[in-house]
Specification:
Chain B: It holds the Pfam family ABC_tran. Chain B: InterPro entries: AAA+_ATPase, ABC_AA/LPS_Transport, ABC_transporter-like_ATP-bd, BCA_ABC_TP_C, P-loop_NTPase. Chain B: Keywords: ATP-binding, Nucleotide-binding, Transport. The complex is a heterotrimer. Chain A is mostly helical. Chain A has a domain of 245 residues. In chain A, 73% of the residues lie in helices and 3% in strands. Chain A has 15 helices and four strands. In chain A, the strands form two sheets. Chain A has a two-stranded antiparallel ribbon with strand order 1-4. In chain A, a hairpin with a 2-residue loop joins strand 2 and strand 3. The two termini of chain A are 15 Å apart. Chain B is built from ten helices and twelve strands. In chain B, the strands form three sheets. A six-stranded mixed β-sheet of chain B has the order 8-9-10-5-11-12, sandwiched between helices. In chain B, strands 4-3-6-7 form a four-stranded antiparallel β-sheet, covered by helices on one side. In chain B, a hairpin with a 2-residue loop joins strand 11 and strand 12. In chain B, helix 3 packs parallel to helix 6. Chain B is globular, with a radius of gyration of 19 Å. In chain B, 43% of the residues are buried. Chain C is mainly α. In chain C, 46% of the residues are buried. In chain C, helix 1 runs antiparallel to helix 12, helix 2 packs antiparallel against helix 11 and helix 11 crosses helix 12. The chains are: A mainly alpha, B alpha/beta, C mainly alpha. Chains in contact: A-B, A-C, B-C. At the B-C interface, loops of B face loops of C.
């Protein structure tokens, strides 16, 4: 009854192209932001931060990035894990080389470095398409992981071959290192995520976004109506990799604290992020959030249910999780290739007319 | 004959035709050993509706693809607005002001009608990545300005009610119209239409004819079109190029072409009298 | 001959043998791709699943024993019998056929007319599902697979090369068997597709789905057939690889190696799959031999992909693929 666009008239084109054209949506958005910034930080503890919120926020950034490349620009990448590793190792080198510079700047720089690497591996996308490209991005995945494993300079010649994040502060609050409190981790990631999501939304609703989608939907036609495929695809690779690099940097510095490249950023991570955007919704900002939330929450719930309640062995639960994830991917691709975001949209369309559908 | 006047001429129904806009000089195109186009020359004048006709496999679509820069001919020159066009990518050709529609509709299925038409204006939009990411100043202003232009085209082609519908859901006839809208949105100097009436019923054909004539009349857009339907072509166009087996066999006004013996042979088979 | 060169030749020969196994997995990919346009990422997991099933049957394991134990609190493990290898292989092949029918019925049928990339992602989902299923059915521990294939150094080659060059080449008997089996498989597949009725239907489907349907070929039957054959090829690959290094998860990563093989050989060409496999197998061993020591080793992890990537940039259709003409 409250969800209405009737009576919500637009008097300018700017009004019509805003992010939440319907008043109820806008209000709900403000409410979510108020809870995220005003309520959760006061209640969050270490378990919730580490099991749910921080991974969700970080994966949401990575999913946004991959969604820009795959969902909007149509270039499937299986190199996400490798690019996250670039972000992680970049931020590690920057943190240890320039301890006095703010961690925030390091994270953004790490994103920038990843963007450059992304463009490099994106170059072949001009010649090869579809799953050929997807397989080609595997080259990035395996090469990068190998590189960080084999070249000691990247992990500062540490004996274990691991990288670990030293303590860095923002406004006197530690955001990395062992002394970081749950609210600090949470807020740091949240602020970055909100800023990046806002930028992604702006990019995707304007000219750049239309170019990406044009290339995605029909690349030849796009080129004939004046889209330069080179700059368009590379811009998608650059921006996508920036997001993924930032996510990798946060994943290492804030979430893990210490990382070994093959374990933290292996091929499984690439698939995880890809699954997030398939289940959440290709080509949808909201879908990136929904998919990240789903893929973070599901294992936690399954584990609590099967291991905690029923007393199953952990490995059995893990195998069942594989099956469930696999089946869900297939089911979503069959039933709703646009993922949870599309289900959400359909529900809203129904609501808009409810209770008088005619 | 007044059509040979380099400065232009006035048609029977009072439209002004300007000087030569595009000239194709001795174009030849091969795919491996197959000759798609052999040594064809013709010109297109400003404000004109120019048709390219011919039986199946005559090389019409290849010719259109040469004009729009999708195929690069092995021999010959393309002159546009007084300059010889060097080797160019299709998107660069689009920026010169050449827009087109496609025989098999090539819309962006995942986007709304409005977004599809907005893509037509991509070549005219200038705001940078950064200002778009921030959605400040220039980007937002530009978006609104271009939206106004696009809305005019939406009004013109009478597709207001489907503005926000995803293109994938539209019926065939409307898709064709949206495609025309996208091409028009680019404000082209030269508009190429690849079989705009293919697969349409009589009513839709009439609508499309009306739009083509209106576009030419109101915006003064030069139009080059390929069409199978002889009746439509003869009614619409000022001058017609006839192709057969990759060669030009006729060129002139509809009446001239109609009485050309080669053209009759190509369409009706060789007569043996 | 200098030692260095001899070692290199030996490494190259071993690479060729490894390449045969890549080619074997790649063969499964090509079959499915040709018949249905599906880029089947799950092919490697099929091989893993087939090998797990084979070992399970051989050792008389009770399927889903862990799951049953967890739910009902029982303590089941095996039926307590050992099946002869040949019986187990037949049974495992039967399971692969049933699996193909299930996949066609519940996955492929619903994905007709989707974009290739969607199909590709669906097979990634399928791969996850099968991996989980295999683990739940048979347990995730590393298993030894022995169907009685000869293993260990081939003495004849060792002796002959020692007498000729003063250095005996180490070539595993298993690799030789694998090469022979792969060759037989390719020959019989070729004969099947060229001369049998189903084979002709298969080629028709590969050419054009619509046209094949219109002359009365059942697409669904062909798909089941192709997936069954691919399942059988996977079983063979699983046996070879499993005998060599045990049945474990890393087996499905071999499948990933088949991808660059395909990119090199072209997705639609059976000879391409074989030549591609040999090039990749030999290339990565030689690269590791010559360049590996200088840059830290373990280059096999990425060499195949980078080679395929570079190759594709210059020849997007692969070695034997047909040139792509773009149209509007």
């Amino acid at each position: 009854m409250f969800y209405r666009e009737a009576g919500d008239f637009k008097t300018s084109y700017a009004d019509d192209s805003q992010t939440f054209p319907i008043r109820f949506d806008r209000l709900r958005y403000y409410a979510v932001m108020a809870v995220a910034f005003g309520v959760i930080p006061f209640f969050i503890n270490d378990y919730w931060a580490n099991a749910v919120f921080v991974p969700f926020l970080i994966y949401a950034i990575a999913a946004l990035g991959l969604n820009i490349l795959t969902g909007y620009c149509g270039q499937v990448s299986l190199g996400t894990g490798g690019f996250m590793a670039v972000g992680a190792y970049a931020v590690y080198k920057l943190m240890t080389a320039f301890p006095d510079v703010s961690i925030l700047i390091h994270v953004l720089l790490a994103g920038g470095i990843t963007a450059m690497v992304g463009v490099l591996f994106g170059l072949p996308s001009l010649r090869i398409k579809g799953f050929y490209l997807a397989v080609a991005t595997l080259a990035a995945q395996f090469f990068l992981v190998w590189l960080f494993n084999k070249v000691p300079w990247f992990y500062n010649y540490s004996a274990s071959g691991q990288i670990s994040a030293p303590e860095r502060t923002i406004l006197g609050q530690a955001v990395t290192g062992a002394n970081t409190t749950a609210p600090a981790k949470y807020l740091f990631c949240l602020i970055i995520l909100v800023a990046l999501a806002w930028l992604a939304r702006n990019l995707t609703r304007g000219t750049v976004g239309r170019k990406w989608m044009a290339i995605r939907d029909m690349d030849i036609a796009a080129e004939i109506i004046g889209v330069n495929p080179l700059t368009t695809k590379l811009s998608a690779f650059a921006i996508s990799s920036f997001y993924i690099g930032v996510a990798g940097a946060l994943f290492f510095a804030v979430y893990l604290g210490a990382a070994e490249v093959g374990e933290a950023f292996g091929i499984q991570k690439s698939f995880l992020i890809l699954f997030m955007i398939i289940i959440g919704g290709l080509g949808s900002i909201f879908g990136s959030f929904a998919g990240a939330a789903f893929m973070v929450l599901m294992p936690v719930l399954l584990k609590n249910l099967l291991v905690g309640q029923l007393g199953w062995a952990t490995d059995l639960a893990a195998h069942l999780e594989l099956m469930i994830v696999g089946a869900l991917i297939v089911i979503f691709l069959i039933a709703e290739p646009h993922g949870m975001a599309q289900l959400w949209r359909l529900a809203k369309e129904k609501l808009r007319l409810w209770p008088f559908p005619h | 004959m007044n059509q040979m006047n380099p400065e232009g001429y006035v048609t029977a129904d009072g439209r002004k035709i300007g000087p030569v806009l595009m000239e194709m000089k001795n174009i030849s195109l091969r795919f491996g050993g197959v000759k798609a186009i052999t040594d064809i020359s013709f010109d297109i004048r400003e404000g004109e509706i120019r048709a390219i006709i011919g039986p199946n496999g005559a090389g019409k679509s290849s010719m259109l693809n040469v004009i729009s820069g999708f195929y690069v001919p092995q021999d010959g020159e393309v002159w546009f607005r007084g300059y010889k066009r060097g080797p160019m990518k299709p998107y660069q050709v689009a920026r010169l002001g050449i827009a087109r529609t496609f025989q098999n509709i090539a819309l962006f299925d995942g986007m709304s009608v409005l977004d599809n038409i907005m893509t037509g204006r991509l070549t005219l939009m200038k705001s940078g990545l950064f200002s778009q990411a921030m959605w400040w100043g220039k980007a937002e202003k530009e978006e609104t300005e271009h939206r106004e232009k696009v809305e005019k085209i939406i009004d013109f082609l009478e597709i207001q009610p489907i503005r926000k519908t995803p293109v994938g859901r539209l019926p065939y006839g409307l898709k064709k119209r949206v495609e025309l809208a996208r091409a028009l949105a680019a404000e082209p100097k030269l508009l190429l239409l690849d079989e705009p009436m293919a697969g349409m019923n009589v009513e839709e054909k009439e609508d499309m004819c009306r739009f083509i004539l209106d576009v030419n009349d109101e915006f003064g857009t030069t139009i080059a079109l390929i069409e199978h339907d002889m009746g439509v072509v003869m009614d619409l166009s000022d001058r017609v190029v006839v192709m057969d087996y990759g060669k030009k066999i006729g060129d002139g006004t509809p009446d001239e072409v109609r009485s050309n013996p080669d053209v009759i042979n190509a369409y009706l088979g060789v007569s043996h009298d | 001959m200098p030692d260095q060169l001899l070692y290199a030749i030996e490494a190259g020969l071993n690479g060729l043998m490894a390449g045969v196994l890549y080619a074997l997995v790649a063969l499964g990919f090509v079959l499915i791709f040709k018949a249905s346009g599906i880029f089947n990422y799950a092919q490697g997991v099929l091989a893993l699943f087939a090998a797990l099933t084979l070992v399970g049957f051989q050792n008389g394991q009770i399927p889903f024993a862990h799951l049953i134990n967890a739910i009902f609190g029982t303590d089941l493990h095996t039926f307590g019998w050992q099946l002869p290898a040949i019986v187990a292989i037949v049974l495992a092949a039967g399971v692969m056929v049933i699996l193909s029918i299930i996949i066609e019925r519940y996955v492929l049928k619903h994905l007709v007319n989707q974009a290739p990339i969607i199909l590709f992602m669906a097979t990634i989902g399928l791969a996850y599902f099968l991996e989980g299923l295999g683990d739940i059915m048979w347990g995730a521990d590393i298993k030894k697979l022995d169907v009685g294939l000869p293993q260990g150094i081939n003495e004849t080659i060792d002796t002959v090369t020692y007498n000729a060059f003063g250095y005996g080449f180490f070539i595993d008997n298993l690799d030789i068997v694998a090469s022979v089996v792969a060759a037989l498989l390719v020959i019989s597949l070729t004969i099947f597709s060229q001369y049998s009725k189903q084979g002709r239907a298969l080629r028709a489907v590969a050419d054009d789905h619509q046209a094949a349907l219109s002359v009365g070929i059942s697409l669904r039957f062909i798909w089941v057939l192709v997936w069954s054959i691919a399942g059988f090829v996977a079983l063979v690959a699983g046996i070879m690889w499993g005998s060599k290094s045990g049945v474990q998860f890393s087996l499905s990563l071999i499948a990933l190696k088949a991808l660059p093989v395909l990119m090199l050989g072209g997705f639609t060409s059976i000879p391409g799959a074989i030549v591609g496999g040999l090039i990749i197998g030999m290339g990565e061993k030689l690269f590791e031999f010559f360049v590996g020591p200088m840059i830290g080793g373990a280059t096999e992890n990425w060499f195949a992909y980078v080679l395929a990537l570079l190759f594709l940039v210059f020849r997007p259709q692969g070695l034997f693929g047909e040139k792509i003409i773009e149209r509007v």
